[in-house]
Amino acid sequence: MTRADVRNALADLLEAGLSLPSGNVLRYRPGKFYGMTPVVLVLGGGSTHDTTSQNDSDPRYLFDVRTFVLLGKADDTTWSSADSEAQLDSLDAQIAAIVQAHTRTAAWDDLAYTRSSVVEEVLSIDGWVYVRERFWIGATIL
Question: How many angstroms separate the CA atoms of 104 and 99, rounded?
Answer without folding.
Answer: 9
